[in-house]
Amino acid sequence: MSAPTPRTALLVGAAGGILKEVARELAEEGHTLVLFDRDATAVHRLAEELGRLTKVEAVVGDITDIPAAEAQLTDIVDRFAPSILVNGVGGDTRVIGYADLTTDHFDQTFLENVVSSWIAVKVCGPRMAADGYGRIVNFASAGGRTYSHFNNAAYVAAKAAVIGMTKQMAYELAGTGVVANVVAHGPIATDRVAGAFERRTEESKKDVMSRLPMGRYGTVAEAVGSVLHLCSESAGYSTGSVIDINGGLYM
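Structure for SDR family oxidoreductase, as requested:
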């Protein structure tokens, strides 16, 4: 198999558990990386680490501050013309019953998951289409495909919206050389998710594990393969698809 063509990848939420590992793998393949994250310490640490392997630019910004993020993303597109975009922002480990949710929960989770992904595609997509090549990967959730034992109705609704939005974007971009797809992870043992699990009672931990067909959470290493495939040249005929990585949950 020939080596992949070196490209530029923009990772939004780059310092998060899954995207951090995706960044490492893309760096190993020789791609230039633009790492966008609001955690300045974490993103600069990652950039320093990966700078030994490839060219890396760290950008500190909050993707949920839409006007500021749009300006930053426009500058990134002008300077780097990324042809790979991975939106990894969003997530929620709060179990809240539907009757206890407020409109603030919906506003915040739709901003974090849906609007933030939209603004990145809005800015990057036209340049990709003009260049005739692009790989867009948005993060949904297994819960967004059905329901969730581990979150709440606002989060599930937002992740379902990410799936629908991505399918529409894929339709509009079809034929331009740009494909847009979704990865829907089940429970993956990132630091955040593992921390939330450890805060549960022993009885609650047993209940959670009893609901997982594989009897365990997925590892970060197991979560990245689908993302890397959708970032690759070989994914050129995959668009509007949803790849489930859920250990048999919600079969």
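The helical segments are 17-28, 40-50, 66-80, 103-131, 153-173, 191-198, 202-210, 220-231.
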